[in-house]
Amino acid sequence: MSTVTAPTTAAAAPADRASVDRAVLKAEFTLFRREAGSLIGILLFPVALLVILGSIPSFREADAGLGGIRLVDAYVPVTVLLGMIAGGIQSMPPIITGYRERGILRRMSTTPVRPTAVLGAQMGIHGVAVLVSVAVCLTVGRIAFDVALPRQIAGYLLALVLSVVVSLALGALIASRARTTKISNAIGSVVFFPAMFCAGVWLPVQTMPDTLAHIVELTSFGAAAQALNQAAAGDWPAWSHLLVLAVWAVGLTGMAARWFRWE
């Protein structure tokens, strides 16, 4: 994933903190829109996978092993998680690491711009992009393949918010430990594939053997997949899955805050 250049408009922002933060957010959003790789990974890749899988006739037939639902129904929550994984693990860390590597964060300390404003802007922008990806996946699933929208709205939103926080906190943790963009990309690639497996890309969690499923459910994306599936089916997500997500969110956020280096 390529990194972006420094937001030159931020340094000329007004001294007022709120104005400076808004200027940074605007500059970072402008740069983000120019990053085709980030947009493809977050917005298009999950939808493309859903369309490919939904185009397979057998995926549109009821499966007794899945409780009577179709495989395409089970894969909608998986594609929802893919946008989070792409945004949190592959898109955001190289940008922040690139700023540190080129000394941009250090130079910001002598201006009204706070380095925390950059981190907050990046997490906010990627969080919104992930939510747009979620909306697109749900819409395409409904229109193209007649996948029912989530029936337990409150439970789905709760699981979704926790999942987004976990993905962004994981990205912040990667950015906090990687000294260079190359290292950040390498760590992101290593984490990316296990995260996809736990999310159920190759095998939906509910179809995994019991022992493997119980192990996967202790991971952040495994618990997220189960919680989203349960809410989509109309049930309140199991508190055990929500607890796993909450523990991961708190733990990853705490580690990222403790280990983050601006220089």
From TrEMBL:
Localization per Swiss-Prot or TrEMBL: Cell membrane; Membrane
Q: Which residues form the ABC transmembrane type-2 domain?
A: 37-263
- Keywords assigned by UniProt? Antibiotic resistance, Cell membrane, Membrane, Transmembrane, Transmembrane helix, Transport
Carries keyword Zinc-finger? no
Q: Mainly localized where? A: membrane
Q: Which InterPro entries match?
A: ABC-2_transporter (IPR052902), ABC2_TM (IPR013525), ABC2_TM_bact-type (IPR047817), ABC_2_transport (IPR000412)
Indicate the transmembrane segments per the record: 36-54, 74-96, 117-141, 153-174, 186-205, 238-260
Q: Which organism is it from?
A: Streptomyces endophyticus
Superkingdom of origin: Bacteria
Question: What is the name of the protein in this document?
Answer: Transport permease protein
Residue ranges annotated as coiled coil are: none
Keyword Transmembrane helix on entry: yes
Q: Which family does it belong to?
A: Belongs to the ABC-2 integral membrane protein family.
Q: Which Pfam families match?
A: ABC2_membrane (PF01061)
Record's bilayer topology term: Multi-pass membrane protein
